[in-house]
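Technical annex, item 7. During the second reporting period the consortium partners agreed on a shared format for inverse folding records so that results from different sites could be compared directly. Each record opens with the tokenized structure and is followed by the designed sequence. A conforming record, contributed by the partner at site C, is shown below for reference.
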């Protein structure tokens, strides 16, 4: 059996999405910015796709949703435009991000630090959660932007974006949230909170890879990062990825439609897997269930290296992860585990299982069986586990 439980890294394209995209490769392939009929034939479908995207995040028509290649591009665009629009001229000198943001935020923040920007990193607590009040101690009159993800890609922890947005509004600070791991898992409504920028990628909710978007509140338009055309209202140059936009529109519509009737089933399967794995001695999960997205588990098995576990699972045909796919070649300890203060031997043991609406109960039963077998085998050859005093193993 082959089981895919790495849906926070990417998802399969929903067959309905592929069907919607198919005509735009060989039939309706005109460049929508041209003036002939081949171009005009794409306009109605592009309009429908954008309407679906606006509806998916409840964005008002007065605001902008700019199509990009992915959330990494969008995240870079927001942070770097803040530098050019507010910091390089001396108006502001400071931004705030959480310490567990996606690498596209953390790496960009580090780059801005090299240019002299002051960056504060909000900590997470022992449950892997941000406490909104921690923002009050670092925000200043010179703060240009706060960027905190809606949901964490590794733990599934849902961060208090409502409260963080209110604090930003109170201090007149721009607020950006990376909603990549939220769309299709929890309700995302840009009108329900104070948010100036919101980013996402289609391939996280059963859309195609290579297409994403940046939501921009009216009046907060950033300096473009790509110049050379009038596409997307002059905000993002480049010929429109018509199949990708159509696919993203269909995917977000399906994802929102599935929230009420499919996500509860996903959560039930997630909980079944989690309950079974917690029966294994010296095992723990980061972040309480009720504070997580319904599809995600970050679990540690004491004495079992995360990479070794992935090897055993992969041999059994099961795809899981030790964290962000954007850092999958980095075998350092899990940054979330480090951030919550986990001891060194546990920081290397975290494994992430992330389900989707296509996950079946048969797949979960198989994963439970093979994971328990892997833990037993790997612990049997682990000197660090075998010789750990019993009282020390029970701590944490």
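Designed sequence (site C submission):
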């Amino acid at each position: 059996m082959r089981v895919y439980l790495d849906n926070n890294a990417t998802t399969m394209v929903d067959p309905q999405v592929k069907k919607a995209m198919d005509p735009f490769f060989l039939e309706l392939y005109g460049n929508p910015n041209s003036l002939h009929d081949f171009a005009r034939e794409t306009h109605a479908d592009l309009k429908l796709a954008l309407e679906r995207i606006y509806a998916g995040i409840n964005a008002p028509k007065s605001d902008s949703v700019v199509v990009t290649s992915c959330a990494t591009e969008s995240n870079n665009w927001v942070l770097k435009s803040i530098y050019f629009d507010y910091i390089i001229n001396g108006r502001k000198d400071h931004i705030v991000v959480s310490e567990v943001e996606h690498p596209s935020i953390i790496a960009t923040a580090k780059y801005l630090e090299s240019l002299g920007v002051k960056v504060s990193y909000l900590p997470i607590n022992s449950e892997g959660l941000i406490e909104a009040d921690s923002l009050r101690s670092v925000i200043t009159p010179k703060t240009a932007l706060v960027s905190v993800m809606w949901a964490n890609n590794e733990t599934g922890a849902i961060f208090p974006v409502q409260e963080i947005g209110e604090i930003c509004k109170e201090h007149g600070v721009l607020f950006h949230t990376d909603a990549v791991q939220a769309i299709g898992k929890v309700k995302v409504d840009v009108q329900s909170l104070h948010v100036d920028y919101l980013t996402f990628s289609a391939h996280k909710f059963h859309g195609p890879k290579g297409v994403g978007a940046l939501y921009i509140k009216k009046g907060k338009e950033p300096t473009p990062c790509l110049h050379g055309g009038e596409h997307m209202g002059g905000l993002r140059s480049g010929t429109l990825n018509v199949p990708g936009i159509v696919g993203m529109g269909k995917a977000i519509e399906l994802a929102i439609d599935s929230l009420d009737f499919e996500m509860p089933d996903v959560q039930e399967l997630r909980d079944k897997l989690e309950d079974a794995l917690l029966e294994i001695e010296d095992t723990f999960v980061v972040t309480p269930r009720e504070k997580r997205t319904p599809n995600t588990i970050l679990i540690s098995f004491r004495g079992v290296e995360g990479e070794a576990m992935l090897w055993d699972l992969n041999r059994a045909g099961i795809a899981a992860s030790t964290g962000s796919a954007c850092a999958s070649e980095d075998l350092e300890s899990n940054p979330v585990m480090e951030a919550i203060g986990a001891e060194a031997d546990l920081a290397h043991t975290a494994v992430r299982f992330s389900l989707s609406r296509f996950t079946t109960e048969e797949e979960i039963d198989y994963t439970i069986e093979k994971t328990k077998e892997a833990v037993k085998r790997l612990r049997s050859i682990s000197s660090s586990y075998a010789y750990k005093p019993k009282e020390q193993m029970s701590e944490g």
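Residues 3-9+260-381 form a domain with the Aspartate Aminotransferase, domain 1 fold (CATH 3.90.1150.10). The chain has 15 helices and twelve strands. All partners now use this format for quarterly exchanges.
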